[in-house]
Amino acid sequence: MTLSFFDQFMSPTYLGIPLIAVALTLPWILFPTPSSRWLNNRLITLQGWFINRFTQQLLLPLNLGGHKWAVMLTSLMLFLITLNMLGLLPYTFTPTTQLSLNMGLAVPLWLATVIIGMRNQPTAALGHLLPEGTPVPLIPVLIIIETISLFIRPLALGVRLTANLTAGHLLIQLIATAAFVLLPMMPTVAVLTSIVLFLLTLLEIAVAMIQAYVFVLLLSLYLQENV
Question: Where, if anywhere, are coiled coils annotated (predicted)?
Fold first, then answer.
């Protein structure tokens, strides 16, 4: 029983071919195609308003140099939100529960922000490793600590997204299994469990959106330090 709970996180294969590529391609197919018309339907208008508001909030603390990342960060957030939301549907696979995928997104983007900082303003980028006014005996220790914290950032990005989505999916499956088992024995308790399951599903929808936003927000904060 314990192993079956984690079967949902295994990458599905068909004839030995991993289907994670199909799961990663599906969100781009669902996005509406751009139109040259001045007025569109309500869905595309709402989506455009949401993207504009998010981009404005995301780029507010950044200078003009960081605005070049607007398209990439906005596309990444929409991509993650769509993957997380589709993973809540029955009989679907959530690629963002795989640590390898999340690290594959986090490490190159984090490394790009570090390289930009080292190239544009190396003194300021290296200055983050040593706070101003540090006592001389503590300088080697603080440099080691700040360097370790710098390299932990991509790991924290990937693990945070993986852990939150994995925990949510496990809770949903556990409560759904409990409701199914209790239904013939204690219908009243099963109904109450189903209500809890419904509320938890609403919470997981919020978590799916919030975690995508936090992932991109932290990347923008890392970018802010280096531009």
Answer: none
- From the number of C-beta atoms within 10 Å of its C-beta (0-12, 13-18, 19+), residue 15 rates as exposed
How far is the C-alpha of 95 from the C-alpha of 20, rounded, in Å?
7
Cα-based distances in Å from 226 to 39, 83, 128, 142, 177: 39, 29, 10, 20, 48
Do the domain assignments include residue 115? yes
Q: What would the two tokens of residue 206 be?
A: 């919020």
Determine the structural domain holding residue 105 and report its residue range: 7-225
Is residue 2, in this structure, part of any structural domain at all? no
Backbone phi, psi, residue 32, to 5°: -70, 145
How many domains are there within the chain? 1
The residues facing 14 across adjacent strands are: 17
Q: Cβ contacts of residue 139 below 8 Å, gap of 6+?
A: 130
Q: What pLDDT is stored for residue 192 in this prediction?
A: 92
Residue 55 covered by a domain: yes
Residue type for position 92: T
Per-residue model confidence as pLDDT tens digits over 70-114: 888 888 988 899 889 888 888 788 888 888 889 999 999 999 998
Residue 161: is its pLDDT beyond 70?
A: yes
- Give the type of residue at 69: W
- Identify whether 1 is part of a domain: no
The C-alpha atoms of residue 174 and residue 185 are separated, in whole angstroms, by: 17
In the prediction, which pLDDT does 1 show?
45
Per cent of the chain over pLDDT 90 is 22
Q: pLDDT tens across 82-93, in order?
A: 889 888 888 788
